[in-house]
Amino acid sequence: MDFRFTPEQEAFRQELRQFLRQEIPPEWEAGEFEVGSDEEWELSRQFQKKLAQKGWLVPHWPKEYGGANMGLWEQMVLREELGYHRAPLGGALFGVNMLGPILMLYGTEEQKREHLPPIARAEVIWCQGYSEPGAGSDLAGLQTRAVREGDEYVVNGQKIWTTGAHRADWIFFLARTDPTAPKHKGISFFIAPMNTPGIRVQPLINMAGRMGFNQVFFEDARVPARNLVGGENQGWYIGAALLDFERSGIGAVAGLKRDIDDLVQYARETTVGDRRLIEEPRVRYALAERAIEVEVGRYLSYRVTSMQARGQIPNAEASMSKLYSSELAQRLANTGVHVMGLYGQVRPESRRWARLYGRFIMAYMMTVASTIAGGTSEIQRNVIAIRGLGLPRG
Ligand SMILES: Cc1cc2nc3c(=O)[nH]c(=O)nc-3n(C[C@H](O)[C@H](O)[C@H](O)COP(=O)(O)OP(=O)(O)OC[C@H]3O[C@@H](n4cnc5c(N)ncnc54)[C@H](O)[C@@H]3O)c2cc1C
């Protein structure tokens, strides 16, 4: 097997690196973990617009919708470089990776013309209203109701863990349109502007003290019937297709590669007594182990891409990649905190004492969520067991 990229792909990588070095502002390196402050949000929006001008925000989309018609391996290179450089993509990915591809498959011409170009130009930010207090892994159990009244649906219910809802312009969401049907068959997929009267957002603070996700309440919110995507009661199939796009999200491992590179550099430059940290056996072994795991994660994501490039649909393979990289993110954060000793506990706000911008203590807290968001590790293991190994359902 030949793992080398072609000379053209390598040239593209160099072009990207130059662009990213030029366009990612230095303040971003010291920035928050999630786009927290208004300044950071603005900074990330500006960056996304520059990326969009190159066609690199939606490289996988056809040119007519603002994409670059790019091949899968070129996309992989792009995602690797964006991940490695910690590019501020923020809330853009809900439109780019999830809603956009869904509208291309199931949207009406009118919906495509109205919504795809603004996503491609980084003008409109979306959020995903799937999970509810009683419906996460068992998403089909969702209770939000949409009742048709003339040309509108009246929506009532509650969503939770809605990432970026406090910043988003639009939401795509699932609601029950036929309560008498079996639970997978009575659900529809809708889109709505966040400023619709009756949609209310209540931010939630996560354990790292950051505002990322929210509760979203629908209280007699009126959604025009033309905002139904696909047919009524077809939402489950559309929503599930969207999850496939979500899980095949590759390139996350590239961010971990950057973390291990930074840690190695830190351990080389830091002395403890008369020895450099990197000479400590416990530090060397831990870093070596994580570095090997990052490489394994990279090849698992290459496998997903290579299947897609051959026209196959990765399913258990996407779950393996998601499972491995999210658990690795937790191990790596743990290693970072331990390698840095007491400095490992200093948060970014403490600019004077924080090392590596307090990134690892933040990662230590934030990555707890990585094995929950986008489908828990248990759910990924179920997928691998049933669809990958052919084991019977439990
Ligand atoms: C940071 C973050 C961001 C998120 N962003 C969004 C978002 O933008 N939009 C959105 O809609 N949702 C979002 N979510 C929600 C996320 O999709 C759910 O949290 C996730 O699907 C798990 O659902 P739950 O929290 O209801 O847990 P549950 O489904 O209640 O699970 C509880 C526990 O039971 C286990 N479990 C459940 N079912 C099974 C089973 N069949 N077999 C074995 N074990 C099982 C789970 O693995 C877990 O350990 C986000 C979550 C996080 C943490």
Low-confidence stretches at least 5 residues in length (pLDDT < 50)? Answer: none
- What does the oligomeric state look like here? single chain
Report the bound ligands by name, code or SMILES. Answer: flavin-adenine dinucleotide
Radius of gyration: 22 Å
Strand order, main sheet: write it out. Answer: 1-4-5-8
Provide the CATH superfamily of the largest domain: Butyryl-CoA Dehydrogenase, subunit A, domain 3
Termini, distance in Å? 37 Å
Per CATH, the architecture of the largest domain is Up-down Bundle
Q: What is the strand tally?
A: 10
Question: What structural class do you assign from the helix and strand content?
Answer: alpha+beta
**What is the CATH top level name of the largest domain?**
Mainly Alpha
**Which sheet architecture does the biggest sheet show?**
4 strands, mixed
Give the overall average pLDDT.
92
CATH topology of the largest domain: Butyryl-CoA Dehydrogenase, subunit A, domain 3
* Fraction in helix: 40-55%
The run of helices and strands is HHHHHHEEEEEEEEHHEEHHHH
Q: Please count the helical segments.
A: 12
Total count of domains: 3
Q: What best-fitting shape do the alpha-carbon axes yield?
A: globular
| Portion in strands | 5-15%
